[in-house]
Amino acid sequence: MAAVHPSRTHDWWRDAVIYQVYPRSFADGDGDGTGDLAGVRANLPYLAQLGVDAVWFTPWYLSPLVDGGYDVADYRTIDPAFGTLGDAEKLISEAAEHGIKVIVDIVPNHISDQHAWFQAALAAGPGSPERERFHFRPGRGENGELPPNNWPSQFAGDTWTRVPDGEWYLHLFTPEQPDLNWSHPDVRREHEDVLRFWFERGVAGVRIDSAALLTKHPDLPDFTEGVDPHPYLDRDEIHDIYRSWRAIADEYDGIFVGEVWLPDSERFARYLRPDELHTAFNFNLLACPWDPKRLRRTIDDTLAEHAPVKAPATWVLCNHDVTRTVTRYGREDTAFDFETKTFGTPTDLELGTRRARAAALLTLALPGSVYVYQGEELGLPEADIPLDRIQDPMHFRSGGTDPGRDGCRVPLPWTAGEPHSGFGGATEPWLPQPAYWPRYAVDRQLGDPDSMLALYRTALRLRRDTPGFGDGPMTWLPSDNGVLAFARTDGLVCVVNLRDHPVELPAHSELLLASAQLDADGRLPGDTAVWLRG
């Protein structure tokens, strides 16, 4: 029997492989064109055979879906498009039978404008207790016609909307997502109750959206670039919230994953202190270009910022907000930045796919946990969405210059010969699939030992069963310029060649896995990674 890495017996989250499901686009169980929980339940064997430890679901709650479900109208109700609360409970239970844990998404910074609280606030009027749960303010200017402050939006556009009685309310995202007032006890109490609600239904963890944005300066002063403390980002009082949340999670042996975008490594690490969040997304690697020096520095910086609080790093190549890896890595600029997204950026998908395969082995060999966004294991590219079918508010709030995030959210292809590549029934999916989508279908890849899916399945099996992977130390090895080489424990070695010509492999006793074939002389080709036993 294969040896089991010691960390597999405790603190599963320190080295887990977590698969991100975007429910609208994973699988359609009832054939109405929208993915749902029935579709996920039907494909739990697929996820188990892939070899993931947990599944993170982006919001499945009742929502008008103005922002892909991140505008929540009721945290205790499943949106009818996805199913029912009973369906969610069955999914959690059945996933556990397959050895898969479930992580749900909580959006604490804001709610939907259709939420009962906000509707009550609108009806109650200025000065009411109902409005104190939000950030309502009179406007500036002679007649209150100007917004209360100049805060920039997390999306393009304004951050304040005026209501008919003359007051304005704050929304760091869209007008349909009013920000909550986290200094109000009702807001604290409600979210603690919601955490308990889902932990009691068996979820193993909670991912926290926009985790550094919750608390605001009580005076809501104007924003001035470079002036600290920031009026709404990463304020010190936010840590008291997460300490209270951690006490709840500890009652249920649950874990937290924070979406924390911060350039300051010391402040980032504060969220990962032993009495706060367990892990946080590492966006540095996701944004990093396919460049050996930049990658090595990003890896070093990530491990260094986690070390003081003894938290495991997380490695992420793509998610529901980001240009898909094979497309990004096939471009001249292989980095990712929301500010630089434009229509019509050329890409070499063959090159991007080769690099994405190598990047998969790189991330899966690093210390810590790994997130795999649905469809990455199929090598899906970013899809071009016809202008009249785009739904993402980022596109509209940019005045049409930003292509938005729909291109990475296109429904998955399951069966090449079926309508809409087997995503559901005869109804066209909520986002159109490209004509070439069948070539990436699961059924085709299952029969191809050289497919992206075969690579992921083999890599995840080896990572689970082979000593040396997961959480623990790593050591850089001497290597040529343009080559990354590092050792883990138990003789495990990972080598990634980012040069444009082959290089010699270090001495080894066994080749465990390669992202592409070695050349005729046994050398490692460019944009290729291998796992070796030393």
Overview of the structural elements:
- With 534 residues, this protein is an alpha/beta fold.
- It is built from 15 helices and 18 strands.
- It has helices spanning 23-26, 37-42, 44-50, 85-97, 116-124, 185-199, 238-252, 265-270, 283-287, 292-306, 325-328, 349-365, 393-397, 442-446, 452-465, and strands spanning 17-21, 54-57, 61-62, 74-78, 101-106, 136-137, 160-162, 168-170, 205-208, 255-258, 279-280, 314-316, 369-373, 475-476, 483-487, 492-497, 510-514, 528-533.
- An eight-stranded parallel sheet has the order 11-10-9-5-2-1-13-12.
- The relative contact order is 0.11.
- The model is unreliable at 1-9 (pLDDT under 50).
List key phrases describing it.
eight-stranded parallel sheet, five-stranded antiparallel sheet, alpha/beta, about 525 residues, O16G_dom_2, Glycoside hydrolase family 13 protein, disordered N terminus
Provide a brief overview of the structure:
With 534 residues, the protein is of the alpha/beta class. It contains 15 helices and 18 strands.
Average predicted local confidence, pLDDT: 95
The profile of the biggest β sheet is: 8 strands, parallel
Radius of gyration: 23 Å
Roughly what percent helix?
25-40%
Poorly predicted parts:
1-9
- Portion in strands: 5-15%
Tally of alpha and pi helices: 15
Any idea what the shape is? globular
Intertermini distance: 21 Å
Order of neighbouring strands in the sheet with most strands: 11-10-9-5-2-1-13-12
Number of strands: 18
Derived structural class = alpha/beta
